[in-house]
Amino acid sequence: QQPVQSPQAVILREGEDAVINCSSSKALYSVHWYRQKHGEAPVFLMILLKGGEQKGHDKISASFNEKKQQSSLYLTASQLSYSGTYFCGTEMDSNYQLIWGAGTKLIIKP
Amino acid sequence: NAGVTQTPKFQVLKTGQSMTLQCAQDMNHNSMYWYRQDPGMGLRLIYYSASEGTTDKGEVPNGYNVSRLNKREFSLRLESAAPSQTSVYFCASSQGTERETQYFGPGTRLLVL
């Protein structure tokens, strides 16, 4: 049931773009994106809801394809501060519990 | 505003020992959660409390008990620790359970020998 995140890791130069994907084998009610820096707590980025509503930061964009049961997080003109591991949490059974992916490690080099 | 606080930050236990992880939030949130995070596996929900006075099992509740002491505090107890419970434990809170932002504490690193 765990959603699959891809890629597992990506290395970018500052200013480059990245796309992180999260795919589920079950229908999704919502997808939540968080970023975690090494040794720190996860921090909220965005929630995407079935039906198109989004809640989150203005500088980060994401999509939610309900038919394909997947979400993508778009990081444009990456900055050093974007480094960390990105997790998607998926709500599969409309019980508000989140099942989390294994994470995508993003490394930004100057 | 401290947000979500957890104690202790680090703990080493021997197999069979018991301990309680403490969590408190000062954001007047209704819902609180306990997760564990293991390398390569992301976060897994142990227990959650949708509101004061209620608790429910999550994905991996075996070996754990919880208490929602009041609206602010949510504790996690390991009655008889096992090496498989070596992990990083995060407490989180949200205004409600309905697709709300979760705010995480700094985590407790637990090693069971």
What integer is the average pLDDT of chain A?
Answer: 89
Portion in helices of chain B: under 10%
Radius of gyration of chain B: 13 Å
Overall SS class of chain B: mainly beta
Largest sheet of chain B: 7 strands, mixed
**Rg over CA atoms of chain A:** 13 Å
Ends apart, CA distance between termini of chain A = 37 Å
Q: How would you portray this structure in words?
A:
Chain A is an all-beta fold and about 110 residues long. Chain A is about 0% helix and about 55% strand. Chain A has no helices and eleven strands. In chain A, the strands form two sheets. In chain A, strands 2, 4, 5, 6, 9, 10 and 11 form a seven-stranded mixed β-sheet that branches. In chain A, strand 7 (about 60-65) and strand 8 form a beta hairpin. Chain B is mostly beta strands and about 110 residues long. In chain B, about 0% of the residues lie in helices and about 50% in strands. Chain B has no helices and eleven strands. In chain B, the strands form two sheets. In chain B, strands 2, 4, 5, 6, 9, 10 and 11 form a seven-stranded mixed β-sheet that branches. The relative contact order of chain B is 0.34. The model of chain B has no long low-confidence stretch (mean pLDDT about 95). The interface of A and B includes residues 29, 47 and 103 of A.
Question: Which helices and strands appear, and what pairs or packs with what?
Answer:
The complex is a heterodimer of chains A (110) and B (113).
Chain A (H helix, E strand, L loop, with lengths): L3 E3 L2 E5 L4 E6 L6 E7 L6 E7 L4 E3 L4 E5 L4 E6 L8 E8 L7 E2 L3 E6 L1
Chain B lengths: L3 E4 L2 E4 L5 E7 L5 E7 L5 E7 L6 E2 L6 E5 L5 E5 L8 E8 L8 E2 L3 E5 L1
Parallel strand pairs in B: 2-11
Antiparallel strand pairs in B: 1-3, 3-8, 4-5, 4-9, 5-6, 7-8, 9-10, 9-11
